[in-house]
Design a protein that fits this description.
Blueprint (H helix, E strand, L loop, with lengths): L1 E5 L3 H13 L3 E5 L2 H10 L4 E5 L4 H13 L6 E5 L4 H10 L3 E4 L4 H19 L2 E4 L2 E4 L4 E4 L2 E3 L3 H12 L5 E2 H8 L10 H13 L8 E4 L3 E4 L2
Parallel strand pairs: 1-2, 1-3, 3-4, 4-5
Antiparallel strand pairs: 6-7, 7-8, 8-9, 10-12, 11-12
Helix pairs in contact: 2-3, 3-4, 6-8
């Protein structure tokens, strides 16, 4: 998953970031609520993790501003002491979960996975870009009126690009999402599979959907 980690404590942020990346998540950092808000609006994320350690009121405001701006990704807030009043305020402002900053790492990672699954279900199984549609539940792809036969990796790659439609995604983020359990990659594995995918969904006369973003990676845009 693509995660936004907004924490003012650099040491805690590094520890959590390392653990999340070990689970093959792509993590983007932000040091304060203002940067977190701008980054969340600028990129498509599957989950937002916010530290309320310095100023809980700022993070309560951040949750509310994100929801008002249309951000629907789950929000997990770290609370310094798990106070009931503060937890209620965060949940009422739009947070999906509140955990103490001292939470054990295995529990935190399990909560991240659970929120990610919930978000994926809420996002629905039907994905669309122009005349390309993907039915995740049925593992079926159609371009125009033609069924497109995809391998498992090609399907996961296309699903990832569709879920981040209109966003430039880095090759490293794609590797984490499509090959999460593999340690050894061909250096150009993403480029190879994008080539395979283009050959199947962008045949002669059809509009190009997968764009190359120089110096970054790829973007799917109808």
């Amino acid at each position: 998953m693509r995660l936004l980690l907004a924490m003012a404590d650099g040491q805690a942020s590094d520890l959590i970031k390392d653990a999340l990346e070990e689970e093959r998540h792509a993590v983007v950092g932000a040091g304060d609520p203002q940067a977190a808000f701008a980054t969340a609006l600028d990129g498509a994320f599957d989950l937002l993790l916010v530290d309320s350690g310095l100023d809980p009121d700022e993070d309560i405001s951040l949750c509310r501003r994100l929801r008002d701006a249309g951000v629907r990704a789950p929000i997990l807030v770290f609370s310094p002491d798990g106070a009931s009043k503060e937890t209620v305020a965060h949940l009422d402002a739009g947070a999906d979960d509140v955990v103490p900053l001292s939470v054990a790492m295995p529990e935190l990672l399990a909560r991240v996975r659970a929120l990610g699954r919930r978000h994926a279900r809420a996002a629905g199984s039907q994905l669309q870009a122009g005349d390309l549609s993907l039915d995740v539940a049925r593992h079926a792809a159609v371009r125009g009126r033609e069924v497109v036969v995809l391998s498992g990796r090609e399907f996961r790659l296309l699903e990832f690009l569709l879920r981040h439609q209109g966003q430039a995604v880095r090759r490293e983020e794609i590797r984490h999402a499509v090959w999460p359990d593999e340690r050894d990659y061909q250096s150009n594995i993403v480029d190879i599979y994008v080539h395979f995918l283009r050959n199947k969904i962008e045949r002669r006369g059809e509009t190009q959907l997968i764009l190359t973003v120089p110096g970054v990676g790829y973007m799917l845009k109808a």
